[in-house]
Fold this sequence. Notes:
Layout: H1 8-35, H2 40-49, H3 67-80, H4 82-101, H5 104-116, E1 124-128, E2 144-148, E3 151-162, E4 167-175, E5 185-191, E6 197-202, E7 213-224, E8 228-229, H6 235-271, E9 273-274, E10 277-278, H7 283-311, H8 317-341, H9 343-346, H10 353-363, H11 370-383
Parallel strand pairs: 1-4
Antiparallel strand pairs: 2-3, 3-7, 4-5, 5-8, 6-7, 9-10
Helix pairs in contact: 1-3, 3-4, 3-6, 3-7, 4-5, 4-6, 6-7, 6-8, 6-10, 7-8, 8-10, 8-11
The structure holds flavin-adenine dinucleotide.
Flavin-adenine dinucleotide (FAD) is lined by residues 90, 126-130, 135-137, 160-162, 205, 213, 362, 365-369, 371-372, 375.
Amino acid sequence: MFDLTLTEEQEALIKTARDFARSEIAPVAGHLDEEGKFPQEILTKAFQTGLLNFEVPEAYGGLGLSCLTHSLILEEIAWACCGVNTTLAANMLGAMPLIIAGNEAQKKKYLSSLTAGKNGEPVFCAYACSEPDAGSDVAGMRTKVEKKGDGYVLNGQKRWITNGGVATWFTTFGTFDPKLKHKGITAFVVDAASPGVKIGKKENKMGQRASMTSDIVYEDVFVPKENLIGEEGAGFKVAMKTFDRSRPWIAAGAAGIIKRSLDECRAYSLERKAFGVPIAQHQAVQFMLAEMAIAYETTRLLCMKASWMVDQGKLDSIVSAYAKAYGADAAMRVTTDAVQIFGGYGYTKEYPVEKLMRDAKLLQIYEGTSQIQRMVIAKNLLSQEK
Ligand SMILES: Cc1cc2nc3c(=O)[nH]c(=O)nc-3n(C[C@H](O)[C@H](O)[C@H](O)COP(=O)(O)OP(=O)(O)OC[C@H]3O[C@@H](n4cnc5c(N)ncnc54)[C@H](O)[C@@H]3O)c2cc1C
């Protein structure tokens, strides 16, 4: 039965995340955004508080949290800054292919490295799938894999990789032959310090500027055979399963952005006067607030359902896609209205709503665009038996 009651442990973890987000992140979020600054100090504190690597199993030193608890924590972080939220989630995204398909030795080495950290500092990883000419079209990737000696050699370029510039290892994908499409794709874990790995410049982004996004270039990078994840040719399935697992987190980020928009707009509309009364008394403004509240409830419920299904072992691509598609589009709509409610002030950097709008846009793009979610939904709908 789908039960919305949270346990005491979940409530406590959410409170820890909320307190952390409001005291450590929210006060500096504008500055991080303005400077496009990677929030190293915040991430160190988050790591030390246990707010990183949420779903890494206890066997590898993690908290082994459920997807639902993880999502509810991410919502709190995104309320304060979705760029920080993306950075935290990216570590779990990088770890997920190993959780899904890694062997014991790989999990022990790489997942434990995340939870152990280094001298009290967090260790980062990244999920390196997208390429300059293959984002939505994952099966169109061109990073070339060749067998060599006791392993493989990778040549190619990955683009838009969150945490790419700070990661000590990546879960990544290449193909034995681009003509094989999805059947040729193979997953690996690659040490960032391997000879031939080069990190490109940090992207100067529209939003979520506290997150770090870079290219990763592989030039004759040797990957030992023990770093093959799963089987040769099974990488496409690993990539798709990872997205099914991670899409509820994006919906959680959307819920955080929507809730922040609603909170900011509620407070502002009760204070700001036009035509002699607070703008909250104008029905047109009330309706925008009401739509925001509906969007929050709906996004949160879909996120919780998708996360709960993951936890029940009933992972369903269509439900993850509902949550991601709905949440991302709702966040974009709500943040656009948030700027509207703030009027001219909303269009300036003096108030937080323009940042919310820029941050929300990314939710419709990464981890499968809003169009790709609809393709996933339609494909699943049409293949279902009556
Ligand atoms: C800030 C940021 C962080 C990211 N982080 C990561 C990361 O950590 N790891 C990683 O691997 N990737 C990451 N990505 C990449 C992201 O997943 C891709 O950008 C995304 O999948 C879209 O791919 P694309 O940019 O190549 O766009 P394209 O695939 O070129 O799409 C362009 C447009 O065409 C539409 N389109 C494409 N194909 C179809 C179709 N068949 N039907 C209908 N419409 C279609 C798309 O919806 C989109 O509107 C990140 C991207 C950004 C911007």
